[in-house]
Amino acid sequence: MLKMSEVQQCQGAGCTKEAKLQCPTCLKLNISGSFFCSQDCFKKNWPTHKSVHQTLYIPNFPYTGTLRALYPLSPRRQVPSRIERPDYADHPQGISKSEKTAKANTFIKVLNKEEIEEVRTVCKLAREVLDIGAATVKPGVTTDEIDRVIHEAIIERDSYPSPLNYYEFPKSVCTSVNEVICHGIPDRRELVEGDIVNLDVSLYHKGFHGDLNETYPVGIIDEESIKLIKTAKDCLDKAIDCVKPGFLYRDLGAVIEKNAKANNCSVVRTYCGHGIHRLFHCAPNVPHYAKNKAIGTMKPGHCFTIEPMINLGTYHDRHWPDNWTAVTEDGKRSAQFEHTLLVTETGVEILTAGKNERRFVPDPNTVLNNTGIKSL
């Protein structure tokens, strides 16, 4: 039985009942916070919960770089019942039935005016949360602490952290350090001077998702890492410059790869940008490398992400045994930037733009005529 001085909420997915039991394995390992309302709820959530018990993370695994996961993970963070959730939030395996249904075709949804306003709202919130998370990046801070800060900021905005329980992802943000390409799981490892870290923030608000990420230096970093981060940002910006009605999605990859190769970097091929609105991931697929076979032509009302992952060495990747963390095959560093974009009648609106970033391409203060672009 649970002995505690204050009432605790059950940590089962989607459960808001008062906790009455505590995981016996967690007690033995001195892991706090693992509370459940009943044996049935505990058994139902065991496939996800058991990951916190890993105190030694496969020491003989052939890691490609110097980074190691630091277990056990902290217990799953709770989301108040008042907050609207995506369909996968309470699914035992985190499966989105709506996304599975949508995969049956390659139709790219055109958002109406009301949907566009909802997407603008959630993307504005996502940008606010990323900036809050970025302010915590410094030597000595754990990625788990960054996850806590971001989780709480999302809840304060009456939103759900989109990664949480998405196909059983255990945290509220992806934190990818050094050779991690994407989908790094926040843990107890402290950031150290010279690291680079990508924060990938996604949230769900009133039925719509917003998604963006940026890579940050931890203290003073080496020149090679500075160049990598700049190249990754430039790759995204040059791709955004191309977004307009009539442009083929498959042609974005050539623009990105050309810039990456010019800076002696490579482009990851395993992961791509994606459509986003009511669904977290949907059509179109947006590969970031040249000579891809992506389907679709951009139209006003299309909403999607571009998120090139740029490596210092090979583009090949491998996965850690957690089935999420993707790392470079040669252990060299990787950087990434991402925006959620809306195709407009004349170009693109960058829905997740920061305070010092452009929001529209082309600039709305210019007009195109038969002599070229003229300032208004």
Number of helices: 7
Structural class: alpha+beta
Count of discrete structural domains: 1
**Radius of gyration, taken over Cα atoms and rounded to an integer in Å:** 21 Å
* CATH top level label: Alpha Beta
Strand content: 15-25%
Q: For the terminal residues, how far apart are their CA atoms?
A: 72 Å
Number of strands: 20
Shape: globular
| Fourth-level CATH superfamily | Creatinase/methionine aminopeptidase superfamily
Unreliable sequence segments = 1-5, 367-376
Q: How would a crystallographer describe the biggest sheet?
A: 4 strands, antiparallel
Share of residues in helices: 10-25%
CATH architecture: Alpha-Beta Complex
Order of helices and strands: EHEHHHHEEEEEHHEEEEEEEEEEEEE
Mean pLDDT: 92
Q: Which fold does the CATH topology refer to?
A: Creatine Amidinohydrolase
Question: Tags for this entry?
Answer:
376 residues; alpha+beta; Creatine Amidinohydrolase; four-stranded antiparallel β-sheet; 7 helices; 20% strand; globular; disordered N terminus
Report a brief summary of the structure:
The chain is of the alpha+beta class and 376 residues long. It contains seven helices and 20 strands.
Can you characterise this structure?
Cotranslationally removes the N-terminal methionine from nascent proteins. The N-terminal methionine is often cleaved when the second residue in the primary sequence is small and uncharged (Met-Ala-, Cys, Gly, Pro, Ser, Thr, or Val). One of its GO terms (molecular function) is initiator methionyl aminopeptidase activity. This is Methionine aminopeptidase. The chain is α+β, with helices and mostly antiparallel strands and 376 residues long. The protein has a single domain (97-366), classed as Creatinase/methionine aminopeptidase superfamily (Creatine Amidinohydrolase), CATH 3.90.230. Helix content is 23%, strand content 20%. Strands 3, 4, 6 and 7 form a four-stranded antiparallel sheet that branches. Strands 11-16-17-18 form a four-stranded antiparallel sheet. It has a three-stranded antiparallel sheet with strand order 5-14-13, with no helix packed on it.
